[in-house]
Specification:
about 25% strand; seven-stranded mixed beta sheet; about 30% helix; 11 helices; Dihydrolipoamide Transferase; alpha+beta; Chloramphenicol Acetyltransferase
């Protein structure tokens, strides 16, 4: 008896997703609650588990198709044998792509195309290719490696982007190095030298078209909405990081020994912003219709780089958290982002955002606010610059800070005051301890 596998609930206000990758192929045995496919929503990736143990007999949609919550995407037969299960469904996923302008729809077994005959060797290679995620496919094209020759370290032996990069580094011949040109035989002494023939690669131009992920589409839409809706303005300041750097150097070993986590810069900035928001509550507020909503809590969204794009998990009630709690929470979110296990609930809410472009080497930027929030703090790289201290020119580790804000809610005076409060707290961390 076959059981349909349906798209699970994906979170509040999310009604559909994109089937980004099949984790199981037709004919493979699956256990109850074992993931068979990966869905990409506007915010996170979600694995679809099998409701029963059995054999995957049909894939009803293709990778890249949009599927609604509750829609069937596959069928599991609990009575089938893995060795005798039909294998023809696999070509249905990789062949007969939708034509231009066709809207992908759920396809049942009555509409599945007939399988194409293929040798076992070809079929094996095709199956291997279909398990590649979009990021891995791009890496394969970029590094010019043969994915069938790489041993995958991901779940169920699937290739990861790191596998491709490692293979390219360990085998320069596979990393896109052009084959040496065969030398032409030397001309006879009396014959004039032959004109050099241009290489076949000269002038070669390539293009690659990759469909935007749902996360990237959502980011693009929300950023444009922010520009169209908010009256955005950015104010700047710089901060001397000497005191924070010295505090970290003095206490980092004791801190890590006691709390099991490294003391980073982000803890200082989260605490400094929470303190500054008490003096300038509008920065931690939002506009809803014709009302201003002020929050007595500080839920800060921390921008984290993930394989599929930037995500902003929320550190809740940061105003009441210790340095260790903040650092542990951020570290946990970073690991989840890397593993692709961030949940919808991890990124919902947030009253203020901090984005650290300095980890990528950014000197200065104008960050865009994350609606319905009204402000975002941009951190940047630390570099020694000449500054005047007590009438002397000295070198100090300086960082530029940028506060982008919605001018409809936050006045320029309030924005500058907030940034000055952050600067004061970072340059004199004692203020964070005595709430000053």
């Amino acid at each position: 008896m076959a059981t349909d596998v349906q798209v699970p609930a994906l979170g509040e206000s999310i009604t559909e997703g994109t089937l980004s990758q099949w984790l199981k192929k037709p004919g493979e045995a699956v256990a109850a609650d074992e993931p068979i496919a990966s869905l990409e929503t506007d915010k996170v990736s979600v694995e679809v588990p099998s409701p029963i143990a059995g054999v995957l007999t049909e894939q009803l949609v293709k990778e890249g198709d949009t599927v609604a919550v509750g829609a069937p995407i596959a069928r599991i037969d609990e009575n089938a044998s893995a060795s005798a299960a039909p294998s023809q469904a696999a070509p249905a996923v990789t062949t007969n792509p939708a034509g231009a302008g066709e809207n992908p729809q759920l396809r049942g077994s009555d509409h599945a195309p007939e399988p194409e005959l293929a040798t076992a060797e070809t079929s094996s290679a095709d199956d291997h290719i279909t398990t590649l995620s979009p990021a891995v496919r791009r890496a394969v094209l970029e590094y010019h490696v043969d994915p069938t020759s790489i041993r995958g370290t991901g779940k169920d032996g699937r290739l990861t982007k790191d596998d491709v990069i490692a293979a390219a580094k360990s085998s320069p011949a596979q990393a896109g190095a052009p084959a040496p040109q065969a030398k032409a035989p030397a001309p006879e002494a009396k014959a004039p030298p032959a004109a050099p023939r241009p290489s076949a690669n000269v002038g070669e131009r390539r293009e690659e078209r990759v469909k935007m992920t749902r996360l990237r589409q959502t980011v693009a839409r929300r950023l444009k909405e922010a520009q169209n809706t908010a009256a955005m303005l950015t104010t700047f300041n710089d901060v001397d990081m000497t005191a924070v750097i010295e505090a970290r150097a003095r206490y980092k070993d004791l801190f890590e020994k006691k709390h099991g986590i490294r003391l980073g810069f982000m803890g200082f900035f989260v605490k400094a912003c929470a303190l500054a928001a008490k003096d300038v509550p509008a920065v931690n507020g939002s506009i809803e219709g014709d009302e201003i909503v002020y929050h007595d809590y500080f839920d800060v969204s921390i921008a984290v780089s993930a394989p599929k794009g930037l995500v902003v998990p929320v550190v809740r009630n940061a105003q009441a958290m210790s340095f260790a709690d903040i650092e542990k929470t951020i570290a946990d979110y970073g690991k989840k982002a890397k593993d692709g296990t961030l949940g919808i609930e991890d990124m919902q809410g947030g009253t203020f955002t901090i984005s650290n472009g300095g980890v990528f080497g950014s000197l200065l930027s104008t960050p865009i606010i994350n609606p319905p929030q009204s402000a975002v703090l941009g951190m940047h790289r630390i570099e020694e610059r000449p500054v005047v201290k007590d009438g002397q020119i000295v070198a100090r580790p300086m960082m530029y800070l940028a506060l982008s804000y919605d001018h409809r809610l936050i006045d320029g005076r309030e924005a500058v005051t907030f940034l000055v409060r952050v600067k004061e707290a970072i340059e004199d961390p004692t203020r964070l301890l005595i709430d000053l």
